[in-house]
Amino acid sequence: MAGNRLYVGNLSYSVTSEQLTELFANYGQVRDVNIIEGKGFGFVEMSDAGEATKAKEELNGSVFTGRTIKVDEARPPKDKADRGYQRY
């Protein structure tokens, strides 16, 4: 895995940044947590790629707050021009 930023999906809408930080801290230093409100997913940035890989391997498919979460390497954000919008 090349990056240290992880996508975390299928989150309960009631999950807090503190809860995710606590969960991922078991696998290394958490630099940042960003939960997308009302969408059921978020992002966790670990201090290095090795920690991110370990967290992904251990947590993907695990149950967290009653839901089976998906953990994967986060893809870089798309440019606005690549989002399918057409300009006239």
Task: Give a concise summary.
With 88 residues, the chain is an alpha+beta fold. The chain has helices at 17-24, 49-59, and strands at 5-9, 30-36, 41-46, 63-64, 67-68, 70-73.
Features of this protein?
alpha+beta; 4-stranded antiparallel β-sheet; Alpha-Beta Plaits; 2 helices
What does this entry look like structurally?
- The chain has one domain: 2-Layer Sandwich (Alpha-Beta Plaits), CATH 3.30.70.
- The chain is built from two helices and six strands; from the N terminus they run E-H-E-E-H-E-E-E.
- The chain is globular.
- By secondary structure, the chain is an alpha+beta fold.
- The strands form two sheets. Strands 2-3-1-6 form a four-stranded antiparallel sheet, with helices on one face. Strands 4-5 form a two-stranded antiparallel ribbon.
- Helices cover 22% and strands 30% of the residues.
- The protein starts with a strand and ends in a 15-residue tail after the last strand.
- The model has no long low-confidence stretch (mean pLDDT 91).
Which helices and strands occur, and which strands form pairs?
Elements: E1 5-9, H1 17-24, E2 30-36, E3 41-46, H2 49-59, E4 63-64, E5 67-68, E6 70-73
Oligomeric state of shown chains: single chain
Spell the H/E element sequence: EHEEHEEE
**CATH fold-type name:** Alpha-Beta Plaits
CATH architecture: 2-Layer Sandwich
Mean pLDDT: 91
| Overall spatial form | globular
Radius of gyration (CA) equals 14 Å
Taking strands numbered 1, 2, ... along the chain, how are they ordered across the largest sheet?
2-3-1-6
Q: What structural category do the secondary elements indicate?
A: alpha+beta
Main pleated sheet:
4 strands, antiparallel
Helix-residue proportion: 10-25%
